[in-house]
């Protein structure tokens, strides 16, 4: 789904760190050509793909800051009451947070 968009740098039970590709990727060329940023739905899709989750419900999402080409981002994963709470960090700063349920 996210064909060559990212490379996994670290993967354990609670933390996944990825390096995004450069601005030449088709996602960044489409969103947006003169100001490339990672769409919010892909922030969710990337971690769901890595964890092999089939999302049934997104309970909450908040996108605070932009994720850019070549960024290294860290997904912090907490599981509580059958929900996954994901916080995305970039350089020790929270830039997104969302909660979802899986089937």
Strand content: over 45%
The largest beta-sheet arranges its strands as: 1-2-4-5-6-3
Number of strands: 6
Structural class: alpha+beta
- CATH classification, class level: Alpha Beta
The CATH architecture name reads Roll
Q: Report how far the terminal alpha carbons are from each other.
A: 19 Å
Count of helical regions: 2
CATH topology: Thiol Ester Dehydrase, Chain A
The pLDDT mean sits at: 95
DSSP helix fraction: 10-25%
The run of helices and strands is EEHHEEEE
Rg from C-alpha positions? 13 Å
* Poorly predicted spans: none
CATH superfamily: Hotdog Thioesterase
* Biggest β-sheet strands, sense, barrel: 6 strands, antiparallel
Summarize this entry quickly.
The protein is 17% helix and 47% strand. With 103 residues, the protein is an alpha+beta fold. The chain has one domain (6-102): Thiol Ester Dehydrase, Chain A, CATH 3.10.129.10.
What does this structure look like?
- The chain is of the alpha+beta class and 103 residues long.
- The two termini are 19 Å apart.
- It is built from 2 helices and 6 strands, in the order ββααββββ.
- It has a 6-stranded antiparallel sheet with strand order 1-2-4-5-6-3, with helices on one face.
